[in-house]
Specification:
By secondary structure, the protein is an alpha+beta fold. The chain has four helices and eleven strands.
């Protein structure tokens, strides 16, 4: 009797799982460029966890912002002292801004969801305390129409900035952040017909 009961339960569960797959409400896939490269699909670490853990898709080094800034300042100090015209100053500031640009860490993952949902990318609580890593944009927002866009297939990246004194090496498979599926609300008189379709990939909404 127990064996029969277990078989029925397993059969019902499998049927339910197949039904869920057919509905495809929300989930994750590996982008084509990273297929066959040992990418782990995000999953929750505990039964009551809200966030799905994302891993780095490849080894990458996050340079220290202080190291970059001091190195740049040291090599440019002489020019800053003896050259003070506006054009030179603006050119040097432009270089400095590029030096302090955050690093995009690839995950090899794309995500699908309902039209009234988005995936919020958040930092891990241990990143600032243990690894000196922050998300300079606070949180990342992955819209439903980012999925399978023509530019990058909806590849999800985490923007990370290393405020530690030393470079931080991230190895493939290291957990770098988490994603939380959330619904969003629309304002009164929200006219969807007046909005543009997404035309790009990362950091693009079709509107400048």
């Amino acid at each position: 009797m127990q064996l029969v009961t277990n078989n029925v339960m397993i059969g019902d569960r499998n049927l339910h799982e197949k039904g869920d797959e057919m509905e495809r409400k929300r989930g994750f896939e590996i982008v084509s460029a990273y297929e066959g490269k040992g990418i782990t699909v995000p999953k929750r670490s505990t039964k009551h966890s809200a966030g799905y853990d994302f891993e780095a898709a490849e080894d990458i080094v996050l340079p220290s912002i202080w190291k970059m800034l001091f190195k740049f300042a040291a090599t440019q100090l002489k020019q800053w002292i003896y050259t003070t015209d506006k054009e030179t100053v603006e050119a040097e500031l432009a270089k400095e801004q590029k030096v302090l640009k955050p690093v995009l860490v690839p995950t090899g993952i794309k995500s699908y969801m309902q039209e009234d949902e988005y995936l919020q990318l958040a930092n891990r609580s241990s990143n600032p305390l243990k690894h000196f890593l922050v998300l300079p944009n606070g949180v990342g927002i992955v819209d439903s129409d980012y999925y399978n866009n023509p530019d990058n297939e909806g590849h999800i990246y985490f923007q990370l900035l290393n405020f530690g004194l030393f470079d931080k090496e991230i190895k493939k498979g290291d957990r770098i952040g988490q994603g939380i599926f959330l619904p969003f609300l629309k304002a009164d008189a929200d006219e969807e017909n007046d909005m543009n379709e997404r035309t790009g990939g990362f950091g693009s909404s079709g509107v400048r």
